[in-house]
Amino acid sequence: MSNTNFLEKLLDGVVVEWKPLGKVLMRTKGTKITAGQMKELHKDGAPLKVFAGGRTVAFVDFDDIPAKDVNREPSIIVKSRGVIEFEYYNKPFSHKNEMWSYHSKSDGVHIKYVYHFLKLNEPYFQGLGSKMQMPQIATPDTDKFEIPIPCPDNPKKSLEIQAEIVRILDAFTALTAELTAELTAELTARKKQYNYYRDQLLSFVEGDVEWKTLGELATLRRGRVMSKGYLAENAGIYPVYSSQTASNGVIGKIDTFDFDGEFISWTTDGANAGTVFYRTGKFSITNVCGLIKINDEARLNYKFLFYWLSIEAQKHVYSGMGNPKLMSHQVEKIPVPIPNPDDPGKSLNEQKRIVTILDKLEALTFSISEGLPREIELRQKQYEYYRDLLLSFPKPEESPLKPVEP
User: Fold this and answer.
1) CA 158 to CA 152: how far, in whole Å?
2) Is pLDDT of 90 > 80?
3) Which of 313, 339, 365 is the last residue of a domain?
4) pTM of the predicted model, to two decimals?
5) Which residues of 261-290 are buried (b: 16+ CB within 10 A; e: fewer)?
6) What are the pLDDT digits (tens) for 91-121?
7) Do 141 and 268 fall within a single domain?
């Protein structure tokens, strides 16, 4: 079914009138409050939510904010600076005075209907804001933006049409939220199960293993400094790993490589210090990474060492001076268990047995971790598809303010 036919069936021949947002909704100012005051006044469980830019919020008591600045109507909050977006909220709230919000001032306009239409047109407002050094929009940008009002001469009929659009779109939103909650709970349970069995498999009875320091078993190296310019000028096919955990630590690809084979890398500095990765193939690492090369692979399995360090390395991170570090001299001292130390063949077989079990558990655990974003993305695309069908109102060409094409 085409966009037009779907919408025509819903409208059933009624007229659609485009009206400026400022004419159909009431704009509300915010309250004078600083980020410092929000942090100071915040109380977990307090009843009043105060919005600032981005994801910043505080929960405060009603007495903390002037009564005139408390909004009690279901509203659309305009995030007007930085990340420009709209948020719907239907409980008592306030917001910083650099922002503004809208609520319905008539029975003929469904606030949630307007919210969905504004969400559809967020790219339009983000485009307006991008013209400024600090992305931002002003009240005229939203006040003058035109909203389609079906059947304006019959408020009851108009509200019924708007409510049906809201019902359908809210249903898709709820399904996405439900799916996210279910998959997140499943992922949490699987991670707990994985951690439990990992810890059990890597817990050794005294006397069954010989403890060696990592410095006795492996050679440690550091990466080298590589600027963004260097990465751009030497672009190629070989990955460069750095301190980030996203994308498996890849920050770029170049046309040469420093290492080729099987290794373990770890992050030396910053918030991710102590994070370890199992590496194979041709690659390079930056100066905020270290590299571990096992001296005798007939006695120690790389994957076994990787799983052990994924537990143990974090215990040796030094967090002094506000900059977490795990440098080579600390890594060298990390104790490593060697099972059946008097029989190298038996020792290696036991390490491989543990690795095989953990590999399977990891695959089961992280298959849902990879699938979660994909499932949510599919649901979001489904919502956007029907949102576009339901909100693609025809508009006269002469209208000066046109929403972005869905």
Assistant:
1) 6
2) yes
3) 339
4) 0.68
5) ebbbbbbbeeebbbbbbbbeeebbbbebbb
6) 999 999 989 999 998 778 999 999 999 999 9
7) no
Do 247 and 140 lie in one domain? The reply is no
Tokens of 165: 């659009």
The predicted pLDDT at position 147 comes to 94
DSSP letters along 353-372, please? HHHHHHHHHHHHHHHHHHHH
Q: How many domains does the chain have?
A: 2
- Average pLDDT over every residue of 264-274: 93
pLDDT, mean of residues 150-171: 91
Q: Which structural domain, as residue segments, surrounds residue 63?
A: 14-151
Query: Looking at the chain, how many residues does it have?
Result: 406
Paired tokens of 69: 């600045």
- Whether the per-residue pLDDT at 14 is higher than 90: the answer is no
CA 394 to CA 7: how far, in whole Å?
10
Q: Which helix (H) or strand (E) holds 212?
A: strand 209-213
How far is residue 101's CA from residue 206's CA, in Å, rounded to a whole number?
65
Domain end marker among 297, 324, 339: 339
User: Residue 106's pLDDT is what?
Assistant: 79
